[in-house]
Amino acid sequence: MTGPDSEPSSGQEPPPPEEFSSGITLARDFFDEIIKPLLAEKTPGIPYAAALIGPGSDVLGFDTPISRDHDWGPRLQLFLPERELPERSGLLDRVLASELPSEFQGFPTSFTAADANGYRHPQPDAGPPIGHLVEIASVGRYSRKLLGFDPLAGMSARQWLLAPQERLLELTAGEVFADSVGELTNLRERLGYYPKQVWIYLMAAQWQRIARREEIVARTGVGGDDLGSRIVLAALVREIARLAFLLERQYAPWDQWLARGLAGLRHASRLTPLLSRALAAYDWTQRESRLVDAYAILAALHNSLGLTAPLETMSERGTRDFLTIHAERFAAALAEKIVDEELKPLLPTLTGGIDQLVSSDEVLLDPRLIDRLSGFFETVRTAKSPANSR
Prior knowledge:
Helices cover 46% and strands 7% of the residues. By secondary structure, the chain is α+β, with helices and mostly antiparallel strands. It has 2 domains: 168 residues; 185 residues. The strands form 3 sheets. The protein has a 4-stranded mixed sheet, sandwiched between helices. Helix 9 runs antiparallel to helix 13, helix 10 packs parallel to helix 13 and helix 12 packs antiparallel against helix 13. The longest helix is centred in the middle third of the chain and has 22 residues.
């Protein structure tokens, strides 16, 4: 169809959109066609695991053509037993730097040195030595880099609370291409999901986060503060999304991928439209209505777990005439199920895990800074829950 504002037709069909091959597929092919044969020829007999895990949209399957600007391409990790690492890592690095082709499936295998942000960018037409993105480490060292400790040495409840779930996702997502050692497979099984008591504690804390805010969308709206209502709504939508992950026993990704991850949950087809409509609502009454519908879905999910006696799923009007599901009821019911000796002293304040306590990416990305916060849980043991000031 043409019109007064339409572009003239050239008579040619527009080019089809570029077919995007995901980074995980590229990494798998890179290992099968290049890395595996190269290791067999140059370093036969070395036990190793090969995988694409850790940070990166490609690990989660959320990469797009935009992802290709840095730290994306023919890349993976090679994990050696700790005892083999000092002697073998340098040898493997030299073999890869001298023997890798300059490109694979049209993508450079060489990358620049890290820039000020720590990013490495593709380096087309680079010759040997190749600045490759094949990271060589042991499972323990790689775990310590992301978490600050080695889970294979055992994990206390406190260590689980200090592990950002985004990092746990990075270690359990992606794909393992080979593992003749077994350590990497063992690590991923161990980190598969929170132990039951930690999971219950984190869900209780997440319900409590919602309880602290659930009336404020309406309260600010009634007062004529529409922007304030919208700001609180956006914060609540994030809390609801993260609770949905906990209820479905899935680790939540970083915020830039939270909605995409949420879309993959079993109950997303019911929950995500409500959250979208709440964010698009033009007044606080519509926001309130759509939020309570979302709470009903979460409450029904809670009841389906059978962890507590069934709780009412419908919201009601409180003393201020605002609709509320009284999320603190779910928090309290779950807290009653905490019997772990490490977790019981953290009640009744329900401060939660590190990514419920801290919103700074600078902290969550740095295990050294997280470790400095480990003493926080000692102070929680004697603290009293603050008065409700909503």
